[in-house]
Specification:
This protein is α/β, with parallel strands linked by helices. The chain has 13 helices and 7 strands. It has a 7-stranded mixed beta sheet with strand order 3-2-1-4-5-7-6, with helices on both faces. The structure holds S-adenosylmethionine.
Length: 318
């Protein structure tokens, strides 16, 4: 059966030029999705380049498999997190790779499937799920039913950057005593009743859902581990391209690149270097690359994209 996977790859040309792909290159696409970027990578590395594509979502892998059919024999797809991309590359016979791409977040395909619960409506229809990998981990509904109030508050404050985080966390705790498990409509109603997120440009619940999605998938933890894994996998001179879609992700990428490009990572108050720091990356993009007006007009989802590039040095990675 053919899967209809609607997703326009974001910053496609910019990604292609920044990866500096050569024929025969070995590339890890840590977020293969529907295979949009992957198809471009396979075209540019032909006739014998290799792509290792990972995704947490089996539906995405199925779609990628179909999309990449013309390149059969030159790609491998794995149901795995990019947290362990170095191990996957090694297991497939590539201890060092020429480039790594991480195009973070969710695809339009995932957003458009109501039962995946990535998008909410004002009436609160839709599932409360948000798992990238439907076979693992607790869903959003489970987290909201089980997480301690203090944990909920931290997520709303840190991942949603919301004022009133405690108020909303407490309202959820009170509600769940009554109903056991909240559904999407309950959550949208509680957001409205507590006034959290009011006065923002987007729907008040947008940041609340963002916070829950990040928590369900441990997205920031995965990103930190994925960046370290990419460093371990890349050959000297290899390129790492990361596309982030919100400031929390972009901050982690920027910070990681900056630290990896600095010889010493000791705190400023430490008088003598004790970290034995090594420079593992050279930052290519001082400022992130962003989509132009015509791309945003054609694909509003690209609006928040921030692309950063780093070059792997000779130094050994941790
Ligand atoms: C923005 S989409 C990628 C779209 C892709 N570049 C394309 O052109 O079709 C992000 C994808 O990353 C996947 N994903 C998110 N976190 C992941 C992780 N930690 N490991 C592997 N895949 C992940 C999602 O399931 C989703 O399919």
């Amino acid at each position: 059966m053919t899967i209809r996977f609607q997703h326009d790859p974001v910053l496609l040309e910019e990604t292609a030029s920044r990866l500096e792909l050569q024929p025969g290159a070995v590339v890890v696409d840590g977020t293969v999705g529907g295979g949009g970027h992957a198809a471009m990578i396979l075209e540019q590395t032909g006739p014998d380049g290799v792509l290792i594509g990972l995704d947490l979502d089996p539906a995405a892998l199925e779609a990628a498999e179909q999309r990449l059919e013309p390149f059969r024999g030159r790609f491998e797809l794995e149901h795995a997190s990019f947290r362990i991309l170095d191990r996957i590359a090694l297991a497939s016979g590539h201890p060092q790779v020429d480039a790594v791409l991480l195009d973070l977040g969710v695809s339009s395909f995932q957003l458009d499937e109501p039962e995946r619960g990535f998008r909410f409506s004002d009436e609160g229809t839709g599932a409360l799920d948000m798992r990238m990998n439907p076979q693992q981990q607790a869903s959003a509904r489970d987290l909201l039913a089980q997480a301690p109030v203090a944990q909920l508050e931290t997520w709303f404050r840190e991942y949603g950057e919301l004022r009133g985080a405690r108020r909303l966390a407490r309202a959820i705790a009170t509600e769940r005593e009554r109903t056991q498990a909240l559904d999407c409509a309950d959550l949208v109603r509680l957001v409205r009743e507590t006034g959290v997120g009011r006065g923002r440009r987007h729907h008040p619940a947008t940041r609340v859902f963002q916070a829950i999605r990040i928590a369900v998938n441990d997205e920031l933890g995965a990103l930190r581990e994925g960046l370290a894994a990419a460093e371990r996998a890349l050959r000297p001179g290899g390129r790492l391209v990361v596309i982030a879609y919100h400031s929390l992700e972009d901050r982690i990428v920027k910070h990681h690149f900056r630290e990896a490009a600095r010889a010493c990572s000791c705190a400023p108050e430490v008088p003598i270097c004790i970290c034995d720091g090594v420079v593992t990356l050279r930052v290519i993009t001082r400022k992130p690359v962003t989509p132009d007006f015509s791309e945003i007009e054609a694909n509003p989802r690209a609006r928040s994209a921030r692309l950063r590039v780093a070059l792997r040095t000779e130094a050994e990675a941790a």
